[in-house]
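Support case: 5'-O-[(L-methionyl)-sulphamoyl]adenosine complex. Customer-provided input:
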Amino acid sequence: MADFYITTAIDYVNGSPHIGHAYEKVLTDVIARHRRLMGDRVHFLTGTDEHGQKVQQTARARGVAPQAFADEVSAEFRALLPRLEISNDDFIRTTEERHKRVVRDILQRLFDKGDIYKGEYRGFYSTRQEQFLQGKDRNPDGTWPEIFGEVSEIVEPNYFFRLRDHQAWLVDFLKANDRYIFPQFRQRQVMEFLKEPLNDLCISRPRERLEWGIPLPFDPGFVTYVWFDALVNYYSAVADRPGLWPANWHVIGKDILVPPHAVYWPIMLRAAGLELPKGILVHGWWLTAGSKMSKSAGNALNPLDLIGEFGPDALRYFLIREMNVGQDGDFSRELFLVRYNSDLANDLGNLVNRSLNMTNRFSGGTVPAAGVGAQAEDEVRALWEATRSEYLALFEQFQFHTALERLFAFVRSINAYVEKRAPWKLGKSTDPADRALLETSLATIAEALRLASVALRPVMPGASAKMAAVLGSTPRGTWTEELAWGDSLVGSRVAASLVLFPRPLPAADKAP
Ligand code: MSP
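Agent response - structure generated as follows:
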């Protein structure tokens, strides 16, 4: 059994979770569940990023201590996870001692080696972004873009991390590992960025300007820059769990690839003598009406509202079906409802209920054995064989949206098969050949639905389990074995009915 360690970014606690945060957790969860089904020993980490200027400011504005504020918002992020059926194994907070201890150790190590030195920083500083700005950040007219908020020039002593010394190594590393970052076009963006000489990274903030951070172990007059602190979470969470580091994948959004994850983090690890993660998976943004969904833009949708209305499975399905990993995607209630109604309520949910009804009506509630098969059954099985191998391959390549598209094409073909065989007509016939065909069709439909439920397990764990339960199916063998067409349902008792996805809107389609 191989270890598989996967992480999400850790969320800032200065705002409530929105769909963008939910997506990253669901995407990572689908990968984690998939790896578990493939037999890996998975460790799945998520958590919250709690230090820094923004949290200090937001807490102050509310008149509470930063720790109390962070406790409250971190709890909100944590509470979302079970609601979304996220199967994380750990949740790290950067205010935990287990984390701060490791950050201090790494800082001390780099300071002792001479990778960190004291210098003076002069520059334009954006409080909102918690970063010093450069000339290229200005608008053509010399003003600072809105996203930086208030910008002021400051000079202050600070500690610096020698990034530049490691630049040539990083370029060579990325050249030698040209699939380090997924999707690959993101790696090319990193290479572009690395064409310019790197500035050393200012990794401290004077205590008088920022108190809410981890004090530098070698100079308590300073706290650690929040990115240097936050990145370490991936390692600090498993530092005392042998065998887990390096991580297999860090799953992050495109806004935090360059420079933090693609430049600072590998250089920090190398300087500290630690191994690099094996890969970085970069997803795009959920947009609403063309702009990034975010708390500050005021267009954030609360995932809990949709979960409350439609359940976690429907939201998970939508996020994974609609988004091509790496690209941006549009979120709107209208798009959500289209998927919900057509794919989930109609194509899948209705089919499950029809299958149960017909099995009860024509076979006493027991899945019959498939006897005679004709061309239609051969076609269903052949389509399943093709779907199965594509589905498995697409999962390995993080092409979940296409995998689901193929799976639902299969589900639609079962609906067409039901119409073609019309078991309700066969059930009225007294011809033994029709009776045999009826049994074959009921068995074929039930088996197809069993396979769909197994395939959906990583994406819609709840709905998948319900489907398996009403079909009387119990898991046997590995996931890939369970995905093989078979006759394991023969003789099993099915439930009376199941409404998997109740319709939110009146629909025109005919009932079974
Ligand atoms: N705290 C940092 C990450 C530190 S990781 C060592 C941070 N936090 S965040 O709360 O702003 O974002 C957390 C994750 O959510 C990031 O990967 C970010 O890309 C993702 N998303 C935030 N808004 C998003 C969308 N609208 N769409 C998709 N994901 C986006 O950055």
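The chain has two domains: 3-310, 333-482.

Case will auto-close in a few days if no follow-up is received.
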